[in-house]
Structure formats: structure tokens, C-alpha cells
Amino acid sequence: MSTEQMNGAEMVIRALGDQGVDVVFGYPGGAVLPIYDALFMQNRLRHILVRHEQGAVHAAEGYARSTGKVGVVLVTSGPGATNAVTGLTDALMDSVPLVCLTGQVPTHLIGNDAFQEADTTGITRPCTKHNYLVKDVNDLARVMHEAFYVARTGRPGPVVVDLPKDVLFATGTYRAPETVEQRKSYRPQTEPDPARIAEAVELILRAKKPLFYGGGGIINSGPHACKLFAELIELTGFPCTLTLMGLGAFPASDKRFLGLVGMHGTYESNLAMHDCDVMINVGARFDDRVTGKLAAFSPHSKKIHIDIDRSSVNKNVRVDVPVIGDAAKVLEALILALKARRFTADQAALGKWWRQIGEWRKRDSLHYERSDKIIKPQYAIERLYELTKGREIFITTEVGQHQMWAAQLFKFEHPYHWMTSGGLGTMGYGLPAAIGVQVAHPDALVVDIAGEASILMNIQEMSTACQYRLPVKIFIINNQYMGMVRQWQELLHGGRYSESYTASLPDFVKLAEAFGAKGFRVGRPDEVDGVIKEMLAVQGPVIVDVVVDPAENCFPMIPSGAAHNEMILGPADKKSSGPVSEEGMVLV
Amino acid sequence: MSDIERHTIAVLVDNEPGVLARVIGLFSGRGYNIESLTVAEVDRANSLSRITVVTSGTPMIIEQIKAQLLRLVPVRAVHDLTAEGPAVERELVLVKMSGTGDKRIESLRLADIFRARVVDSTIESFVFEITGSTAKLDAFINLMKPLGLVDVSRTGVVAISRGGGKF
Fold this sequence. Notes:
Chain A is α/β, with parallel strands linked by helices. The longest helix of chain A is centred in the N-terminal third of the chain and has 16 residues, at 137-152.
């Protein structure tokens, strides 16, 4: 059975089936017609037709991040492939497992500037974990299976398989996944070095002001890793902060959770980062949004860094104990070793540390000035959270102020329920990602918390949502500005709002209706609850246009080039902290 | 910066299309230096190629370079020959000389001292072939410059560890 003859296109479909794929996000075109023909002649694999290839990749990301499975994309050659590049880069930065199949001109035309030809493997080399150009149909099955293996193992990432049209028509031998041998050059290290575990344990035993700093790596490792992470926090009684990608890895309602860390993280998280004496980084990468000014980053701490990717270690921040391995395996080993040492925390020191954190918490850094005249963006998100609390809800976001407010104010209890573009910061991510999530979870509540500028970057995907009757809810925090750009212009560029105001926004209610969806607009604080309830009652896709205070800024904020203990807490605070340094200005 | 180090790194890779582009793209994309780079297949049966790259950077950057190289899917092994113990480093140069008379005779005499070989000769030109360390070759080329040096072609460094160990 495993050595059947078939053509390349059939092989692609067969391999997807053998890899357990049930849905593909794609857009047809000349070079992939044979695959679409093979798709037509079967009914196991579902195809979701997007309206732009970038949307296909983000949808596959949403699918992957809400299920833990590999997302699959199918696009044509040339513009199909180049349109996918932003999504691929996004997936690479945020470690999302994807396999993206791209059509290619026939092998004899490669290099001839043929119609819809692009050097896809050349273009995508720096924005994929790995890529392939298949020139022989007899390599195709092996490459397909290897692509899935590479995408999901180690630090996950996107893999491109470029498929020339003649290879898709050629007949060859199919090989089942279990007959494909693993390549010698790719062996991610999952088991930690016991010596490193022992060193980490010593640091944890001596810690007086410890802090867990968890990231997306815990979630990528799987639900078991999240459970072990919670178990380790329970065992130690240490406080925990999470990165943007890590939200959900530990229940936000737990009193040991200090909130988001980094540029728009809470006061208590960032000061705990700054003042801790032992930092235990699990699956985070010391991203510049988290560290702020590197020279002043957590200056007095010993740092343990658990990561499956060796290149994440000592890249930005020099650490004391690097532990290479899969988060679940490392956490398991740590828990075992701590129990073997009959771990008990230094209660006196830990109590003092918690009292200090309690003082910081009292600053209530997520506080904002309420209004009964104009909707504060934070209020809208807070109400959305309150009115959906207790229900299973998946949140996606676009990029900007609304994204940071969502990260601050939404309390995620479980992993796989928060999908946002962290590393690349891709505006236009949220709607297609929500579509991917909804495809994976047809009956769940999926909300894209959006900005009016971001949503317009992939608004065409409303048509996809309507075609498949995907009831995604798009909750637009409409301040008429690219809010984060406006905020930086206010704080760093003397209030010169260069090109950050959108003068001619569409009527989002009519826009929703034009696509065949429902639209609502709300402008008064006392009507927010009503419109959210209306939105939730609708069976199909909805756009809610929440007209908010255009001048609101997202706080707290660590200005670029500043340290964690130099946060701006709110509008009243910004004058006292002085202007941003010249070094800070040049940072992004 | 004062703590810039020069390292010779051997990278063993699957010999497949695009593998060199991956390595070079990694260096240019992340802003690492390449001082020299050589590549050739070393084991046809196992389709294994060896890339020798001479690079420079702070110790943290050198560590990053090695980790990033190892992360590439077709890379089987990365060995820092500078850090892992003594290694032999050699380069081969072809030096074309033109001229007649005293300068021609002097260049031949110096070539003899440096143990360079003449691999091509006409009435008014030589091509010398010389192997050795980068420093020795630099010295030879500098001596040849006033004597009618026309062109130089260098291989870049190839290296292998001393002793019986692999790599």
C-alpha cells in the first residue's frame, strides 16, 4: 500500500491526509491547478478559499495556534507566493508550525522569467524555518512528510514546499510517512542536560526574590507543559509573569500571576523583573519589547533560561544557566529534582518579596480615567471581557493600542485561546486568524479585537467569513488614528501627528452589510453592554464599530531606551519622566 | 570594540541545492562578518559538504553564529576550530607576475624562498602557486607587488583540527 503509483498532485493530497490534515487555507492559480483538480475529486480534505494569500497564512496560523496542530496553506506561484511572505515571516517570528505549498512554473521554465514565476525558495529562505523545491516527483512524498516533521518539531515554524507544475503532473511512487527516514542533520534537542538541571535547582533553592518569566515556548510545548508550569509555581510559591506570546500558559486569575511583562506590562511585573534575584525564563526569548534597555535589564538577578532553541540563549541577555530542551521535559525534570531535594522556599524572604510585590500592585497600573460621555477603549475591552467571562472565548487581535489593552485587560485562563502577532507586529493579522480559529472550533465564540486601521489591511476576508458562515465577531476599537503611531508621535515627536489620522474611514456598519454580515455602531459608554450582548446574540459574522476616545494612550509604558524602573504610569506621569533619550528615539 | 575575536568554523552540511545560500544568507541577514569562505563536497557517498568560514565578532556573537548555523536544517555539525583546540589552517594562492629582467629574476628568487611553485610560464610572465597560512601568503603577495604583480586569486582558508580526532 505504501508504494502506490500516482501523480504529484494526488501525492500532495495523499500526504496531507496521511499527516492528519483536515483543512487547507488557499487560493488557486495556474501553477497549482493540478492540486485543485485532485482536491475536487476527494471529500476528506476541506479547503477554505480566502480572498488574499496573506489571509490564508494568517488563517492557518490561527488554526495552528488554537489547536496545536500544523496549519496548511496552498497558494499559486509568483504573486501567490510573494503575498504569503508576510504571513510566513509572522509565523517564523512567533514560532507557529505551518506548511505552505506554493505552485511553481514547470522545471524547464525555472529561471526564464516565465509568467507568474518568482524565486520562491530564494525569497522565502530567510522567512521560513526551512524550504524545499521539489524537482522530482519521486522526492515529493518524502519532502512532504519531512516538511511536516520540521514544522512541528523543535522550535516550530513555517516550512515552504515549492511545487513545479510538471512535477504535479508526473507519475511516481508514493511513500507513507513511516517509511521516510529522518535526516541526520536535523535532530532538535528535547531532553535537558541533567547537570544544567542541577545548577538550576541550586539557584532556585537559594532564591530570595525569585520570578518566573514564561513565554510562548510553554504553549508550543503543549498543554502538558502548561500544567507542569502551574505545578512548579504551586510547588515553589514564586510569582509569575508572562510575555505577550505566553498569555494563557498560566491562569490569569491566579494570585501568583503578576500580569503581562514588558513595554506595556504591569508595574508589578516589570519592577519584579528589575528587582528579582533569580529569574526563571521558560520558553521566552528576552525580546526587546520585554527587556527594554539591555544594560539596565534585571541587573541583580541570576538567570535560568529554558529554551528548545539554542540560538535564543545568550542572544540578547547573557544568562547564568541555559537549559536546552523541550519545556515539558525540562519542567518535569526540575519538579522531580526539587522534590528530591525536599524543596521548601525561604518563607521569610519570599514573604518579604510578596509584600513588596503587593506594594507595587497597589499602584493599580492598569487604571484609567473613566468617562460617562465618551467610550474609553479600555472600558470597551473590559466590558467585553466581563460579559463573556465563564464562556469559552478565543481572542485574536490586530496590532497596536487595542492589542496591548486586550493583552492587559483580558484574563486568559487557558492556553490556545489568545492569538496575536507578537514578533512581527503584523497589522491585518486578527481577522484572518479569527477565521482560522473559527474553522478549527466551529461552535466557539471567536472575537477579533481590532483597530479601525489594522482591520482595513485584510478586510477582504469578511467575504471568506460570510462564504463559510463563520460567526467571527470583529470588535473594532475605533479611535480614527493609528493609535500606537499617534501615541509615539505625542510622546516622542512633539505631537506632530504625521499621517497617523485616517480621514476617510468607511462606514463599518454598511461595510459589514455589504459583505452580508451584521454591523453595529456604539458611541456612548452606557450603550456598550447592550451592543456587546447584541453582537453575541447574532449567529453569523458581526462587525461592531466602537467609537472611542481618540486621544487615549496605552499605559503603563516603558519608553524606548528606558529601563523597567523608568516606566510611565499614566498621562499625569509623563511630564515628570522627561523626554525620551536620543538613544531611545532611534529604537523602534 | 576590543573583544573582537577571529574564529575559523567548520560547518558540515548536506550537499543539496541552496545550502550555501542558506549559510551566506544567515551571515548577511544577521549582520555577521565573513572574512573568508570555502566550500566543497568532501564525502560523495554521504553527500556531505564542508564549509570553512572565517568570521569575527565578540564572544557572544561567535556563540550566536554557531547556534544559528546549527539551527539550519541541512547543517549536520558545527565545529569552532579556533575554540576546540589546535588546527591547521591553509590557503592556496595563484599569483600572476608580468615583466622581464631583474624584477622577473627577483620574483623567482623570492618564490623559491617561500616555496612557491611556478605553474605557468611565458617569456614575460609567471603564475606562482603557493600554499600556507594567511599571514605567509599576505607577506608573499606584498613582496610581489613591486615586482610586477598582475593579479591574485585566493581560495580562502581551509582548516582541519590537529591530532587524530574528527573535524
